[in-house]
């Protein structure tokens, strides 16, 4: 369990008349604690404690020498204990007289250290005392918080306790108010006095089997008031165990009043929440499909870019070949008949180049056809994306409508609670 108390923040009073000893141990204490006050005699120490106590800034620990001027340590602690009998104390002395020891015992001194001071010994004793202070402070904080919660619970809830046989041992004012019975009429009786005849015996059988097994039972059911009127309560019954946490000692039931109309609204609200959950699942599925679709479109776009780049490269090669062909044709026209054989060889080269050009044109046509197919597919995917976006907007609108409806129900429930509170006041 995480604590709310920091040991370093404990407030310490150290009383010592010897200046050297006071300075040495004072430095040691200030390294361990953030708030350390030093005094040179018992009278100053008592006044310091009294002043802090009156300001509600009391010390958490007192460390004192015994033999001091004006007022010795035992006399100072005796007066301090009259103001605060529970404040932890530690005595430091060079003397071990029996009378002093007996008086220290009678004052319930927490620790006794002999001079010369061994810092390791005092450090160990401080660890033990501070641990006790730590747990005591946490206990007080938690006790205060628990009492606050119990006070709030007693004001807002309908509370009762029963023994192991089911006889009522405690009821709060809310229980008496809603049932119409007085405390005297209820103590020692069972809850059968408010049991509604329409609630089956099997219902209560299941309830008892649950709590007798050490489990918490929760549910809503109908009760019967003393005047014959009915009321519904949302109930939680908790088994209370002994200190060993093995044996059940009693049961405590905590109830909150609800009306039939509120029950119906809760059921409707529950169904709306289930619908919203279902819509959220569908939206999650559509979002996933949307992401997949965008990914496929991105891949298609990358493919189209790659094909377009390749088509441009092919077109450049085709133009280069046509340019070479035109230049070749112009040069051939200038040749005479004597160069016929040479022209024939070049004609053969031209045929080869022309065949290569036709092959490139064929490849280019295939790429152009593939590009057109990809454009068609892109158009289809764009339509799918537009349809998905339209569905997404419709689903968001339906969710917003449901949220508005849920908000209206919550406002109605709050209004019903306020009306019921007003009726209970009158």
What does this protein structure show overall?
- The strands form 2 sheets. Strands 2-1-3-4-5 form a 5-stranded parallel sheet, with helices on both faces.
- The chain is an alpha/beta fold and 426 residues long.
- Strand 1, helix 1 and strand 2 form a beta-alpha-beta unit.
- It starts with 10 loop residues before the first strand and ends with a helix.
- The chain has 10 helices and 10 strands.
- It has 3 domains: 7-153, Rossmann fold, CATH 3.40.50.2300; 157-258, Beta-Lactamase; 265-425, Helix Hairpins (Orthogonal Bundle).
CATH architecture of the largest domain: Orthogonal Bundle
Would you identify the regions where 5 or more consecutive residues have pLDDT less than 50?
none
How much helical structure, as a percent, in the residues? 55-70%
Instruction: Describe the sheet with the most strands.
Output: 5 strands, parallel
Total helical elements:
10
CATH topology of the largest domain: Helix Hairpins
Q: What is the CATH C-level name of the largest domain?
A: Mainly Alpha
Structural class designation: alpha/beta
Q: Roughly how many Å apart are the termini?
A: 44 Å
Strand and helix order:
EHEHEHEHEHEEHHHEEEHH
Domain Response regulatory: 11-130
GO biological process, one term: regulation of DNA-templated transcription
Domain PAS: 142-214
Pfam families: PAS_3, Response_reg
